[in-house]
Structure formats: structure tokens, C-alpha cells
Request: fold
Amino acid sequence: MNEPFDLYPSRTGNRESLLPRLDPVVYEDPRYSHSEFSLTEDQVASYEENGFLVIPDYLPELVSPLNEEIDSLKDRMAGAEELYTEPDSNALRTVFKPFAHSRLIDSVSRDPRILQPVMQLLGSQAYIMQSRINVKPAFTGKSFPWHSDFETWHVEDGMPRMRALTAWIMLTENTAHNGPLYVVPGSHKRYISCAGRTGKDNYKTSLKRQTLGVPRQETMREVLEDHDIVAVEGKPGSLVIHECNLLHGSPDNISADPRTILMFVYNSVLNRPVAPFGGVEPRPHYLSNPDTAALEPLAAPLTEEDIRWLGAGPAPATARVA
Ligand SMILES: O=C(O)CCC(=O)C(=O)O
Reply:
């Protein structure tokens, strides 16, 4: 059988190199750019240029219900394989695939205030390829090294092209002190082909402490010669959208305040995964969602009544309020 040609090879040995990006950042399709919740031209241009966008105080009314839901979810999902702890302690680091266990989170992922801008940037319908809550507890929340998400999704999940993004909601204030996401604006315009080789079940360790797909210091030095680092700060309820190839990472949280975020990775339905390019077995369903059916935005933004009705409910199948 013919293997698909790999436009973005990575982890093929000892070499590391900066390659050109071969895909657009913003995909134009007028069918998806004229909704009630479309981004403005300036917002789209800024996303194209910088690889990320912050919409301050965008969904403040979702913050308390989501935080309550996450507290309940931690109990409901206790012992599940979707839960990952910090590398050096039993403190919870990440809850994967929360939308499959929560009617509220499932509905938030289809709220038109999020899904319409996502479809606008991707120029197509989309599905949730991955979703996670990164808890980053006070004092104990550990760092994430520099990486491009696309590099991992390409090598380990078979995402063919750069046509995906992460939309995430701040559920606590994200400050300079509590381990905010660091991004390198403009870094999404090149691709770092990283050194190394992916071993079997790499995800079991990488999701606690990533080593593969992390550029070497000399490569990062080269990138940072002409790019800055920006800390993404904001009030609870702010929405951030970052492009799949944007270099990002974050420091330890040594402050007294948790930094909790809810992330939805949307992939274009025109970019469904193929066999992983790293020649490894596909990762589990909670890292690369096998349900690639296009999401329909809810008919209207979630109201307080919807939120009350959806709260603390386990089964997304009954959550369709559209
Ligand atoms: O939550 C963080 O600080 C980092 C998250 C991250 O790097 C990722 O989800 O890829």
C-alpha cells in the first residue's frame, strides 16, 4: 500500500530543522464568514499574523457553572483513564474528553459564540478532535515545554494538514504569576521538524512530561532571535483561540492561585486523520476522537436556563438543546 507523502516529517532521527509552512492559516469560505458571531476583519488579520487571538471577558456567565461542573466531574470520572496526574505528585493535571461526560461541556463546545468563529477560521465544518481541562493547581501545577500541537497530532494521530485550532476558556484569572500560557506570536508560520523517534505508547509519559516534539534549545534560540514570548493573561471567561502550529508552553504555577482552562481542539472535517505519520499505533479515543462527524452550532447561545438545566449531567446524548 502507498504511504501518503509526508509534508511535515518529524522525529525521523537526530536532525532538527525549520521547514516552511505549506498551509494557509485562515481558510476562506464565505459560507462560514457571515454569521452573527463571526470575527471582525481585524481579529482575523491578527490571528493570521500572530497565530492566536484573545477575546477578553467573552463568556463570563459560563465560568461559575463550568467550575462547579468540573468539581463534580472530577468525582464522577475518578479512576478513569482520561485523568492524568502531575509528573511528581498525585495532583490532577488534566482531564481529557470532558465533553463525553458532561452535558454542559458538550453544549458549550457547540455554542455558536465559539463554533461560528472556529468554522470561520477553518473555512469548513469542524469536529472536536480533542478536549481537555488543564487544572494547573496552586503551588503544584507543573510546566509544559515549548511545542507545536500540530507536530504531535501529525506524528502520533495522523492529522494530515494544518487546519485545526484550539479554542479555550479561562476558568480562573490567568495572570503573569499563575503559570499562564506562553506563546510565540508568528511562530506558526514555520514548522519545526523535531529530532527523536516516537516509541510505543509515548503518550503515557508525554502527557505528564513531554520530551518528544519539544524543539532543542538551539532551535528555540533561533526562533526567539526574531520572535517574542507573550504571556496570555485574562479574566475568567476570556476566550483564546490558538492555531495548531503555534509554539507555546507554560511555566510552573508557584502562586497561591489555580490556573484552570477548558480547551476544545477543533479539526476541520476536511482534515480528518489518516494513519499516524510516525508509524505508531493510533492513540486512544480521548486523545484523538474517532467521532469525526461535523458539529452543528446550537441555534442560539446558551442561556442561564439552558445552563441550569444542563448542569451536573453526565450524558451528552441527551444534551441537544439546539
Ligand atoms: O495548560 C498549559 O499551560 C499548556 C497547555 C498546552 O500546552 C497544550 O494543551 O498543548
Q: What stands out?
A: The longest strand covers residues 126-134.
